[in-house]
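Recall that a protein's primary structure is simply its ordered list of amino acids. Everything else, from secondary elements to tertiary packing, is in principle encoded there. The following example makes that idea concrete.
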Amino acid sequence: MTLTLGFSPCPNDTFIFDALVNGRLDTGGLRFEVVLADVQTLNEWALAGRLDVSKISYGVLPLVTRDYVLLGSGGALGRGVGPLLVARPDRPFRPETATVAIPGEHTTAHLLFSLAYPQVAHKRFVVFSEIEEAVRSGAVDAGVIIHESRFTYEAKGLVKLLDLGEHWEARTASPIPLGGIVARRSLGAPLAREVERLVRRSVEQALAARPAITEYVRRHAQEMDEAVMRQHVDLYVNDFSVDLGEGGRRAVRGLLDVYARERRSATEVARDVFLEPAAG
């Protein structure tokens, strides 16, 4: 059986899925057709139910739980890993009038930004890799950066206005759920559990080889400096990537609660958001 699998070309995702998609794991009869796309595109595809297994932002999770179940491995969650709001040092930031670039409407970054700055009305949704330049050029007043941009914005002459992850942690005392792996419910629980097992093995194999950066990671990285790639992996791939555990699940439930409260959402979120382990 062949399943479609979507994730981003960012170093944390390619690091996590390298062994799985490049033949270094025994996948039995399962094969994976890989589709690489930026996170907002993956979110949109999840809304459309396009892929069997996909990386998504936790910001879109409440909208896709009817069709997808969250796997316990392969995601990005932790402390000190949140998106940053950055600007030019010569451009005062006035939330009521500012135009802010954000890496996608349904991203966790957008949700965290909205929690910190509910008064901002002018938002421009931009592919994450284009945000630094939009801020530098003056096309926008500020931008929410994610991924490897955390490690490059200062060298590009930008300054941090707020760490949106720290703001979240201060308000919730919870780690930040950034992105998770979902599987189509129609696959059935046994097959979804097998995919989860394979993802976990792929993460474990990658972590065992740390700090090595493979050719697969290098080939797809937006930022080609290997030190930045390593920083990226070290920040976003951790114990929660191996297994959410109860702490991670608690954080995800907290994010769903914040989503419902902040968006005043009537969206029905499935009670069984998480893939449950097999009985016994």
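The mean pLDDT is 91. The domain at 84-172 is CATH 3.40.190.10 (D-Maltodextrin-Binding Protein; domain 2).
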